[in-house]
Amino acid sequence: MKITYLGTAASEGLPAPFCTCEVCRRAREAGGKSVRTRSQALVDESLLIDFPPDTYLHWLRTPFDFLKVTDLLVTHSHMDHWYPDDVQSVVPPYGHHDPSYTLTLHGNERVIQMLEEGMAREEPQILETVPRKVAKAFETFTAGDYQVTPLPADHCYTEKALFYLIEKGDKALLYAHDTGYFLDPVWEYLASRKDLRLGLVSLDCTHGWDENRQNHMGFTVDAQVRDRLVELGRGDGDTLFVCNHFSHNGGGTYEEQAARAKELGLLVSYDGLTLEF
After folding, report:
1. pLDDT, tens digit, for every residue of 171-193?
2. Which helix (H) or strand (E) holds 231?
3. Which domain holds residue 111?
């Protein structure tokens, strides 16, 4: 299994428009890995996680075949994770392709509602090309070759925000954004999964150097999550633990973030990074 980080920033991107803070200024000067677009990831070639307004840019910068993507997992309805207007490209006259192609959308009720209400007005035929399935916490479903278990996030209390455990054969990925320190029911579920060994864990790092455990996480809390997963036997010395989803409010250039993560035995994502496990 492999993951490609197409975008690795929080909602405002990094650097952020209209912002004159020191972090954004230094990110612009540094360029390269310090410049981050809104978060999105591709698992192998067929499973896309989130659909932000930077999706088109991601496709241009890190080319992948959209027609090989069969399933889309959306974590929640915040704009930086779900921009449904751009999904209209899946139908003519915006996109011409094999008419049998479908892209199955998995998300909470609000995510599904936003697509259905928006497209019903603009491009109702999209609803035939994009089947919708409501994802519910702890209810495992099949998405192509994968078994996916949604987990409840500590985030966004106006809807049931989710993050995802993705399994294929003996490989497993935990993609944990946007969430604070995992809720007790999540830990109970993971403790019960004695058959599970995680190959890669992607952890929210919006708070950066701040040790706040709510709504998002930072470096210190990511290390605490890592330690507890290892204690439970869900991770080990071969598991990749990756800090991802960065904000200017969390501080640091890529080099500074990578140095802090290294101190804690963690990795740091950047736009375009691919990891196999």
Report:
1. 999 999 999 999 999 999 999 99
2. helix 219-232
3. 2-276
Euclidean distance between CA atoms 227 and 233, whole angstroms: 10
Reported pTM: 0.96
Helix H or strand E segment including 276: strand 274-276
Report pLDDT for 254. 98
Count of helices and strands (H, E) across the chain: 7, 14
Please answer whether residues 219 and 192 qualify as being in contact, where contact means their C-beta atoms are separated by less than 8 angstroms: no
pLDDT of residue 157: 84
- Is-cis flag, bond preceding 15, omega within 30? yes
**How many structural domains comprise the chain?**
1
CA distance 200 to 13: 24
Strand pairing report for 47-49 and 146-152: unpaired
Q: Are 21 and 248 in contact (CB under 8 A)?
A: yes
Taking each helix axis as running N to C, give the angle between helix 219-232 and helix 184-192, from 0 to 180 degrees, rounded to the nearest 10.
30
The burial of 228, by beta-carbon neighbours within 10 Å (0-12 exposed, 13-18 middle, 19 or more buried), is given as middle
- The residue written with tokens 């405002």 in the block is 12
Residue 146: closest CA among 49, 270, 78: 49
Report the 10 Å Cβ neighbour count for 241.
23
pLDDT tens string 121-175: 778 888 999 999 999 999 999 999 999 999 999 998 899 999 999 999 999 999 9
**41: CATH:** 3.60.15.10
The pair of three-digit structure tokens given for residue 162, joined into one six-digit string = 């989710």
Alpha carbon 59 to chain centroid, angstroms: 16
Output phi, psi for 270, to 5 deg. Answer: -150, 160
